[in-house]
Every structure is written in C-alpha cells, then in structure tokens.
Design a protein that fits this description.
Elements lengths: L1 E10 L8 E10 L11 E4 L12 E12 L5 E9 L22 E12 L2 E2 L20 H4 L3 H15 L3 E6 L5 E9 L1 H20 L4 E3 L15 E6 L1 H5 L3 H13 L1 H7 L4 H4 L14 E3 L6 E3 L1 H5 L6 E3 L8 H13 L4 H7 L1
The structure holds adenosine-5'-diphosphate and manganese (II) ion (MN) (3 copies).
The site of one manganese (II) ion has 3 residues, from loops.
Protein name: Glutamine synthetase
EC number: 6.3.1.2
GO biological process, one term: glutamine biosynthetic process
C-alpha cells in the first residue's frame, strides 16, 4: 500500500468569479486511485461563501482525477460542491447542470497576465515599457524577461504530466501576458481542464512570488490588450454536414442570444470588448472570415470546406467560467434547425 496525497480542489461561492480552493487528505491505495475509489469529503462552507456558520457542512464529490507531478504520490481531485445530502448540487456548482454532448468539441484559449508588485511582470516601477508590438510570440530578455518563460514551461510540464490536453502556449500581445490552449470533447472535458490548469498555474507561481491576473482588462482604458478566453467550438453536425444555410441560421441564433452569451462570458467584459485591440463591440454581434475584430471569427478552412468545421467565439474573457460558456454555446446551437428540419417543416 502507498500513501497518496489527495488534493481535493473545488470552486468556492465568491461572485462574480469563484476562487479555486484545495485541501489535502492522505489515503492508502495499492496503486494510483481511480475516480470510483475516491470518497466524498466535506469542508466548512461558511469560510468559502457556500454556507451559513450555523449549518456549515458542504460535500466534495470527486469528478475528475489527475496525477500531480509536483508532489510525491500526488493526486489532483477535481470536485463538485454538493449540499449536505451529497446528491443535490450546491447553487455555486455550475458544472453539475450544464448541457453536454460528447460530439461537441471545445478549444479554449486562456490568456492571463503575470503580476508582481501590483503590475505586469516586466513593467517598470513607474510608467510603461516599450509599446506593444514585439511581445506577441516574442523571444529575448527585453521581450519576455527572465522568469516568465521558466514558469510557462514548468506549467506546461505539470499540465502534460496531469494528462491535461494542452494544445499549445504562446507569449501574448502585452508584456507579461501569455496564453495556453486546451481542447476537449464534450462540454465538461476542456472546461474541467481549464480550471485544473488555472489551479496548477496559481499554485506554481507561489514559489516565484508572482500572481496571475485573470481580469480581462487589468490595465484599463490604455493601449494595452486585455485578456480573453476565445472559445473554439464545433458539433458533429457542424463538422460533418454544416453548409451555408445552416451557418447563416446559426449566426442569426447567436445574434438573437447575444445578451445570454455576454451574461456568462465573464465579468467586466465591457472594458475589453470595445471594438479596439482585436475585439468586437460588446453591444453588437458580428462575424467574419478570418476577422479578429468580429464577435465570431470564421476560419478560412471553414468556408473552404463548404461551411464545415469549427468557429471561434472571441468574446468570452479570461475570467469566464468555461462550464457556463460551453453550455451557452451548446444551448444556442441546439436551437438551430438543420436543413432537413427546415424542409420537413415546409
Ligand atoms: P488563434 O490564436 O489563432 O485564435 P489558437 O491556435 O490559439 O488560435 O487556438 C485554436 C483553438 O481551436 C485550439 O484551442 C484548438 O483546440 C481549437 N480547435 C481546433 N479544431 C477544433 C474543432 N474542430 N472544434 C473545436 N475546437 C477546435
Ligand atoms: Mn490563440
Ligand atoms: Mn490569444
Ligand atoms: Mn483565438
């Protein structure tokens, strides 16, 4: 038997953005535990805005398990928060009730800033560094500094060791800003892994004395980019059948549901979706081929393949909840009739 360090990780009850929380329990197993072997556990919900002090117990229900390469015999246990009965999802549990479809694929591009001493890593103590331009995908000390890449590489290795489906990383447009991409099949898979990758990044940065700023516009109304979390999505129908008429109905449905999307695309998005810095205005819906100033960017490959493939919703921001983003995208898609639905109705 081996003693494993099980880190139970959950989202707390803070709004509009939950925090990640975690605590460790030690348990013995013959080998690396499977999800089914992991017991429910509890925590004091009155300390996380999830319960009143008089009745403070909340239940942690394991839903995903990942190896934790940072710890000897470490296990990362992603949990949903349940009511004391262990069966009813807690109101803060946005994962339990989302729409799911294993044929729906999601690729999230998580952008974020490293922060130190209250400013982006690499910014001088007062004023600004040289303007944006050389930092995106840049190389060299004056562009990326001496510590950011080390953190990014370590984070990548931790995520890959955990089995997180990272697809890539890059330095972003602002100094101190980076991105990673995670892809998954089904609404929950990529979203779970975004939360787990956020956790691993935050935890890793503790030892560097660096914070992660996930706010979508940390530098406010300046010529510095904000952070998004573009949501690339496709359903089986979009990949295999698609077509121009379906695409146009899909875009009309996204237009009609604009407010529902914005409501779950992350707080303070009006600060970011200004129409500048590769964003669309928050007040209108637009789409365009290869258009990085549109709400939805249509890849060239999509049009060239007969309106089949994936689309990129550029509006979700870096603080968005990927569970709710994926679910809203699916909800809008599922309201759109296919060509055969349309001709059957005619
Ligand atoms: P860019 O920065 O040009 O917008 P990235 O390469 O950072 O693009 O991200 C593209 C994303 O698209 C990746 O996360 C990838 O997983 C995702 N993606 C690719 N194909 C599909 C697909 N068929 N369905 C859903 N997402 C996809
Ligand atoms: Mn990208
Ligand atoms: Mn990007
Ligand atoms: Mn993108």
């Amino acid at each position: 038997m081996t003693k494993y360090k099980l880190e139970y990780i959950w989202l707390d009850g803070y709004t509009p953005v939950p925090n990640l929380r975690g605590k460790t329990q030690i348990k013995e197993f013959d080998s690396f535990p499977s999800l089914e072997q992991l017991p429910l556990w509890g925590f004091d919900g009155s300390s996380t805005k999830q319960a009143e002090g008089s009745s403070s117990d909340c239940v942690l229900k394991p839903v995903r398990v990942f190896p934790d390469a940072a710890r000897t015999n470490g296990v990362l246990v992603l949990c949903e928060v349940m009511m004391p009965d262990g069966k009813t999802p807690h109101p803060s549990n946005t994962r339990a009730t989302i729409l799911d479809d294993e044929g729906a694929w999601f690729g999230f591009e998580q952008e974020y800033f490293f922060y130190k001493d209250g400013r982006p890593l690499g910014f001088p103590a007062s004023g600004y560094p040289a303007p944006q331009g050389p930092y995106y995908t840049g190389v060299g000390y004056k562009n990326v500094g001496d510590i950011a890449r080390q953190i990014v590489e370590e984070h990548l290795d931790l995520c890959l060791a955990a089995g997180i489906n990272h697809e890539g990383i890059n330095a972003e447009v602002a100094k101190g800003q980076w991105e990673f991409q995670i892809f998954g099949k089904g609404s929950k898979k990529a979203a779970d892994e975004i939360w787990m990758a956020r956790y691993l990044l935050l935890r890793l940065c503790e030892k560097y004395g660096v914070d992660i700023e996930f706010h979508c516009k940390p530098l406010g109304d300046t010529d510095w980019n904000g952070s998004g979390m573009h949501c690339n999505f496709s359903t089986k129908f979009m990949r295999e059948i698609g077509g121009k008429a379906y695409f146009e109905r899909l875009m009309a449905a996204f237009d009609a549901a604009r407010e529902d999307h914005i409501a779950v695309y992350g707080p303070d998005n009006h600060m970011r979706l200004t129409g500048k810095h590769e964003t669309a205005s928050i007040h209108t819906f637009s789409y365009g081929v290869a258009d990085r100033g549109a709400s939805i960017r249509v890849p060239h490959s999509f049009v060239n393949n007969g309106y089949k493939g994936y689309l990129e919703d550029r509006r979700p921001n870096s603080q968005g909840d990927p569970y709710q983003i994926a679910s809203q995208v699916l909800k809008t898609i599922s309201s759109v009739p296919t060509d055969s639905d349309v001709s059957a109705a005619a």
